[in-house]
Amino acid sequence: MKREELVDYLDGLLTPGKFRDYCPNGLQVEGRAEIVRVVAGVTASQALLDVARERNADAVLVHHGYFWKGEDGRVTGIRRQRLATLLAGDINLLAYHLPLDAHPELGNNAQLAKLFSWLPEGRFGEQDIAWLGRLAEPCDLSTLAARVAHGLGRQPQVFGEASRPIRRIAWCSGGAQGYFEQAIGLGVDAYLSGEISEQTVHLARESGVAYLAAGHHATERCGIQSLAGHLARRFGIVCDFVDVDNPV
After folding, report:
1. CATH 3.40.1390.30 domain range(s) in the chain
2. Are strands 210-213 and 165-171 parallel, antiparallel or unpaired?
3. In terms of C-beta density within 10 A (0-12 exposed, 13-18 middle, 19 or more buried), how is residue 18 classed?
């Protein structure tokens, strides 16, 4: 398919124009005009780009791309090497950040709900990125943590009483600990995100609401995987998800 066809489809599907984001969404680096093979991953790291070159990919599709607000815009060092790899291989780079978190079917949070059989009941947080719902099978916190570890292949950091009953849960993939206070106010029993910092531990202890920090990378694999699979089925192109290991 043509590059413009792929970009137009993704922009229509993920509607980036509806979001105030910290980076440009869509086509970030232009490569060859014809798309046959896509390599997808969470972050456009050098390791992912090297795989794309090895596989002669026409495009790289990621959740975390480049040109973040506040970054030094000079093309030097690591940034130069990454861009040089893309340009030398004539590889397109497409990135979708908040639009991929929020998509109601293919997005990170939708896919977390599907993975753990959580039943969504609403949205909250900035631009309705975070999700709210209940467990299909209520359990205690230790059982929930074990399910998360099994589903994501990573042991989460857990803050709360192991025996606490969990019925209602809120979640948001990635670095979304800033929504924890809103989740507490909504009356949930637990909140899951990718990261946690020092002050958030105290909020969990003092509120009694459990917090599971399941990994920024681990909680954001699901969306890009589902999007890659969707493109392969719809257009018949090769769209390989490559998991570059990241422990945080």
Report:
1. 3-101, 104-216
2. unpaired
3. exposed
How high is the mean pLDDT of the chain? 97
**Cβ–Cβ under 8 Å, residues 212 and 145:** yes
Across 156-175, average pLDDT: 98
Could you tell me what percent of the chain has a pLDDT over 90?
A: 100
Output the pLDDT for position 245: 93
Q: What is the pLDDT of residues 187-245, one digit of tens each?
A: 999 999 999 999 999 999 999 999 999 999 999 999 999 999 999 999 999 999 999 99
Q: For residues 122-146, give the mean pLDDT.
A: 97
Q: What is the 3-state secondary structure (H, E, C) of 208-246?
A: CCEEEECCHHHHCHHHHHHHHHHHHHHHCCEEEECCCCC
In the chain, the N- to C-terminal Cα span, in Å, equals 35
Q: Which residues contact 60 (CB under 8 A, 6 or more apart)?
A: 38, 39, 40, 41, 44, 48, 49, 52, 86, 91, 92, 93, 94
pLDDT number for residue 241: 98
Written out in words, the top-level CATH class of the domain with range 3-101 is: alpha beta
> How many alpha carbons fall within 13 Å on the CB side of residue 16?
18
Architecture of the 104-216 domain: 3-Layer(aba) Sandwich (3.40)
Contact assessment for residue 196 and residue 158, using Cβ atoms and an 8 Å cutoff: no
* Distance separating alpha carbons of residues 97 and 90, to the nearest angstrom: 23
**Amino acid occupying residue 241:** F
